């Protein structure tokens, strides 16, 4: 079955996720995987000019919320994934796949959906019963922003809420941790699996072009 076409755009942000092969753990202590992820995202961001809005690493998968001013999600993801996999293979002496199939991505084409995805990403650790509140989980960019340790993350995080005018940290954390209804959560999970038709305009002709997002 052919892969769904990948939309490359600079008009909308993306929700990206990728899972380890066979849903196994990453074969290394999570502290070590976290450092590998930070370093390899930093390299891929520097080379491709993407904007990282939030990132979380779980035992066997990760989530990213990013924007691509250069319409190059494919180049960023290829560089990040290849470096990430090689580093884990090198440290574990593995030759088999580290990640499963190709990453999943979903274009976020409205403000409300962007807000929901942001919350959904940071609540991964709460849903997994690892922590009680999102800011407690130390393998996410939220932890470092809230605890003012962002200097320990090598790449730049442009969070849409934390540190922005008009929002207090307490208000943001309350909003995140109040969670979702079951219907909202199901809808967000399905967002990465269902095709969604978008209308994008050609830069030169300004004619509307219809695509199907991955």
Model description:
It is a single chain. This protein is of the alpha+beta class and 214 residues long. It has a single domain, classed as 2-Layer Sandwich (Alpha-Beta Plaits). The chain contains seven helices and six strands, in the order βαββαβαααααββ. The chain has helices spanning 30-48, 73-92, 111-122, 124-127, 141-146, 169-177, 182-191; strands at residues 14-19, 51-57, 61-67, 104-107, 197-201, 208-212. A four-stranded antiparallel beta sheet has the order 2-3-1-4, sandwiched between helices. Helix 1 (30-48) packs antiparallel against helix 2. It is globular and about 45 Å long. The protein starts with 13 loop residues before the first strand and ends with a strand. Mean pLDDT is 81; it is low at 193-214.
Could you give a short account of the major beta sheet?
Answer: 4 strands, antiparallel
CATH class descriptor: Alpha Beta
Fourth CATH level, the homologous superfamily:
Transposase IS200-like
Spatially, the strands of the biggest sheet line up as: 2-3-1-4
Mean pLDDT, all residues: 81
Report how far the terminal alpha carbons are from each other.
14 Å
Overall form: globular
Stretches with pLDDT under 50, minimum 5 residues: 193-214
Structural class: alpha+beta
Helix content: 25-40%
Any idea what the radius of gyration is?
17 Å
Order of helices and strands: EHEEHEHHHHHEE
Q: What is the CATH topology descriptor?
A: Alpha-Beta Plaits
Write the CATH architecture name: 2-Layer Sandwich
Please count the helical segments.
7
Beta content comes to 15-25%
E-strand count: 6
Q: How many separate structural domains?
A: 1
């Amino acid at each position: 079955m052919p892969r769904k076409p990948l939309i490359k755009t600079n008009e909308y942000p993306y929700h990206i996720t990728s899972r380890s092969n066979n849903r196994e753990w990453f074969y290394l202590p999570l502290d070590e995987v976290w450092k590998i992820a930070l370093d390899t995202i930093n390299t891929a961001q520097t080379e491709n000019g993407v904007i990282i809005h939030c990132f979380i690493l779980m035992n066997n998968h990760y989530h990213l919320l990013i924007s691509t001013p250069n319409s190059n999600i494919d180049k960023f993801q290829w560089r990040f994934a290849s470096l990430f996999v090689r580093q884990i293979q090198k440290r574990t002496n593995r030759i088999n796949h580290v990640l499963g199939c190709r990453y999943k991505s979903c274009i976020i084409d409205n403000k409300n959906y962007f807000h929901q995805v942001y919350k959904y990403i940071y609540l991964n650790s709460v849903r997994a019963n690892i922590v009680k509140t999102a800011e407690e989980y130390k393998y996410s960019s939220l932890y470092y922003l809230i605890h003012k340790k962002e200097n320990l993350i090598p790449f730049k995080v442009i969070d849409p809420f934390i540190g922005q005018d008009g929002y207090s940290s307490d208000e943001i954390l309350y909003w995140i941790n109040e969670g979702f209804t079951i219907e909202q959560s199901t809808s967000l999970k399905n967002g990465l699996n269902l095709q969604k038709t978008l209308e994008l305009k050609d830069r030169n002709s300004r004619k509307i072009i219809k695509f199907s997002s991955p």
